[in-house]
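In the previous lecture we treated proteins in isolation. Real proteins rarely work alone, and many bind small molecules. This record shows how such a complex is specified: first the sequence, then the SMILES for magnesium ion.
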Amino acid sequence: MKKEYIETIKNSAGRLKILLEDFFELSIIEQADYPLKMEIVKFNSLIIEALFGFYEEFNRRNIEPEIHIPDNDIMIMVDPSAVKRVVENLVINTIRYSTGDVTIHLRRINSVVQLKISNSVHQLSKQEVNLMFDRFYKADQTRTGSGTGLGLSIAKSLMEKMDGIIYAELKDNQLTMICEWESKYS
Ligand SMILES: Nc1ncnc2c1ncn2[C@@H]1O[C@H](COP(=O)(O)OP(=O)(O)OP(=O)(O)O)[C@@H](O)[C@H]1O
Ligand SMILES: [Mg+2]
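The predicted 3D structure, ligand included, written as tokens:
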């Protein structure tokens, strides 16, 4: 068999494996008794930690993200690994799909802690934005070599488990993913 065929098969097998793992993960998260490890954490530090791991990747893509994270501590009850997973899925998307700049904002608005991650997009409709959180949805069906369309579904399930919300806004070719948690700590 020609080498390129073997490569293609290897690649599809690799993709299938990732798809199965992601799908399995999502079905586990969606189970009613999925265990969360909720704890009170310094949310500003947690987000910085989560973002730090993407420094290299941003660099490689020549993206210099604009990051606004307050110095004063934001205390909140969350599952830290679930938060990291949500941030990871959102940031990987900005690295993959941004057509330019990326902005990350963390702020507390009264009792709500809000994380906004936004990037510029190319020709994305409001309709597509509404479908994004659906399983297997990919806005550009023709794109090859990227994900399986489960990242945002996983993020949404995890947010719901933590009693948070996640939604998207599209304005002037800027897509913003917004995560919100209620915090009774200050
Ligand atoms: N930050 C973003 N900017 C532009 N388009 C986005 C962004 N995030 C998601 N999308 C669009 O929404 C679709 C669904 O995103 P999602 O993260 O669920 O899946 P994926 O990135 O295709 O695959 P996976 O995350 O499973 O590897 C993407 O394929 C892309 O078309
Ligand atoms: Mg994704």
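Summary for your notes: Residues 3-30 form the longest helix (28 residues). The chain has one domain: 3-182.
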